[in-house]
Amino acid sequence: MSAAQPRRSRERVLTMTGIGKRFGAVKALTDVDFWVNEGEVVALVGDNGAGKSTLVKVLAGVHPPDAGTIEFDGGVVEIGSPADAQELGIATVFQDLALCDNLDVVANLWLGREMLEGRLLDEVEMEQRTWTLLRELSARIPSVRTPVASLSGGQRQTVAIARSLIGDPRVVILDEPTAALGVAQTAEVLNLIETLRERGHGVILISHNMADVLAVADRVVVLRLGRNNGVYNVVDVTSETLIAAITGAMDHSHVQRPMTPPAGTPPSAPSSSPAATTTPTPPNVIDLPKAGSRRRGTRGDA
Ligand SMILES: Nc1ncnc2c1ncn2[C@@H]1O[C@H](COP(=O)(O)OP(=O)(O)O)[C@@H](O)[C@H]1O
Ligand SMILES: [Mg+2]
């Protein structure tokens, strides 16, 4: 694993090629291609059972894939465990957030990675770093010494995201971060996602909410029945088109079209894949802009 490479802006961080995963007789993923660049928000959408969670669990080291390759910072890696994912710099905020309600914000952020001073917890340092991180995220948390049980849904999501940033990961995966939130809290979390992009993290956003996806993502990857069913640049796509791709009204999975190589595509990627020998059908890629060229400002500054 090569987690310690120097950071360059807008480079490809992660490339998955020809990923396959079976659970017994169920083909959860078949020949799936996926990538994310630094400073890019990629939405991963699809109907229930499309394979979204399975794909991110492959990245999180929960499910090793049966087929395909994963490249991270240009080198082929195997993510055999959650510890491997963490070491590479892939952080996942699962939908249940996995916070400890009875502990305060500081304790939740540093749980399992507590800072010590001698044999004692360095509470001062942990609290200071918590404030620094929350300030960088422009997060609105009233006190870092409140138990997280007393926080709103949006604040809890913020704490979970802040916690995922402790190791300064290259890729942050968010599974349905706004699913349980009201309008104002959703806007706060979407702003937070934009902050993650500005900090240079590659962000993978699983969402059912097309408005959220269109507001915050740069690119949308559609999965359907465990296969790629379209890759769209958000500035060129409508929610109708996305819904058609999600439901199968628009079937891209068998369409043969030349794939526009996105910015930063490593030329060696397809040939290093075992799937390349079977000439996989590329997903449609519609007019990808150069990374970082878009600022849409659909929501006001918060
Ligand atoms: N641990 C598992 N064991 C057996 N089947 C699974 C498991 N996880 C997912 N699946 C199956 O894989 C397919 C994709 O599921 P999933 O990745 O959860 O889809 P999504 O997150 O898009 O709703 C579904 O058919 C689901 O039933
Ligand atoms: Mg799921």
UniProtKB/TrEMBL annotation:
Show the SMART domains listed in the entry: AAA
What's the name of the protein? Answer: ATP-binding cassette domain-containing protein
Q: Where is the composition biased (Pro residues)?
A: 259-269
Record InterPro entries: AAA+_ATPase, ABC_carbohydrate_import_ATPase, ABC_transporter-like_ATP-bd, P-loop_NTPase
Return the Low complexity bias intervals.
270-279
Task: Give the Pfam families listed for this entry.
Answer: ABC_tran
- Point to the regions of Basic residues compositional bias: 292-302
Q: Write one Gene Ontology MF term.
A: ATP binding
Q: Which residues form the ABC transporter domain?
A: 14-250
